[in-house]
Amino acid sequence: MSEQQFPGTTITPHSPEFTESSVSARRSKSAAMAAAALTLLLLVLLPARHALATAAGDAHPGYAGAEADTCGAAPGGSPPSGGGAAGRRHGPALEEYGGGRIVDITHAYRPSMPAFAPGATVGPLVRLKASMEDGSEYNLSELRMECHMGTHVDAPGHMNQAHFAAGLDVDTLDLDVLNGPALLVDVPRRTNITAESMKSLNIPKGVRRVLFRTLNTDRGLMWKAAGDMSYVGFTEDGAQWLVDNTDIKLVGIDYISVAAFDHLISAHVAFFKNADIILVEALKLDNVKTGLYTLHCLPLRLVGSEGSPIRCILIK
């Protein structure tokens, strides 16, 4: 077989440079070099991407409370037993995953959760319809609950009949609003969230998602096996001030209603007037530091429903 001539060298089909293993090794080396180059490119581009997001006003790392400690008072309620080591999965302890990078701020759905009525609890949520202990070939559970129990989301149709009739259910909620940079703030204690409270927080323009931690967390209300209507929430003027003076489109709070009991209807009406604000209620904010996070909230796609259970996490 004739030799193949290249400038400055002579290579035959039987030369070491021409063997199958040699070609494979060279291809592997080229692939490794390409992967290394891609990694380097990503390392260069990612910081620029985050800088652009900040410049666009969707994040605010410079917020004054970003390095503050969590609220100091320990929750007043006793967590139920069970669920992992020392009740970790079912208690007010910080629930972290991925080496502390992911924080779960969703309450576990349990029968002892408080319901929205004085002294009421949720009661049984899950029923085992088929059991292997009873001879079935499988275990099969059934879920029965209202759509506004535990950590959940309100769609605009919850307290606005025009929005409900227009089909603005949880399946129409904007996932772009439910996911993105979010600010966790501590609300002044001993008060509902009034217009004056909102002014005092000095939340910058451009911040779209805010989680409000209140006296409810200090009192451990979500850990009590009874509804407590003395919880803290938004007053009508507090809700209206937020709508008129901020860019906030997602409001999160630490009890089963975002609105104070005496302003239950009027505050919701203020929030839902324009159908562009999403309310996330009963968040588990125990022991989480204030500041900026990436929030991810995903409701169920319940067509025709004005509310849904929701899983929410923070990414540090």
What is the oligomer described by this structure? single chain
Sheet bearing the most strands, described? 7 strands, mixed, barrel
Element order: H for helix, E for strand: EEHEEEEEHHEHEHHEHEEE
Number of strand elements: 13
What's the architecture of the largest domain in CATH terms?
3-Layer(bba) Sandwich
Helix content: 10-25%
Walk me through what this model shows.
- The chain has 316 residues and is of the alpha+beta class.
- The chain has two domains: 16-55; 85-315, Putative cyclase (Glucose Oxidase, domain 1), CATH 3.50.30.50.
- It is 24% helix and 20% strand.
- The termini are far apart.
- The model is unreliable at 1-24 and 38-88 (pLDDT under 50).
Main features:
single chain, alpha+beta, Glucose Oxidase, domain 1, two-stranded antiparallel sheet, 7 helices, 13 strands, globular, signal
Summarize the structure.
With 316 residues, the chain is an alpha+beta fold. The chain contains seven helices and 13 strands. It is globular and about 60 Å long.
Give the helix/strand layout:
Elements: E1 4-6, E2 9-11, H1 20-55, E3 96-97, E4 102-104, E5 126-130, E6 140-143, E7 152-154, H2 161-165, H3 175-178, E8 179-186, H4 195-201, E9 209-213, H5 215-219, H6 236-245, E10 250-253, H7 264-272, E11 278-281, E12 291-299, E13 307-315
Parallel strand pairs: 8-9, 9-10, 10-11
Antiparallel strand pairs: 1-2, 3-4, 4-13, 5-6, 7-11, 7-13, 8-12, 12-13
Helix pairs in contact: 4-6, 6-7
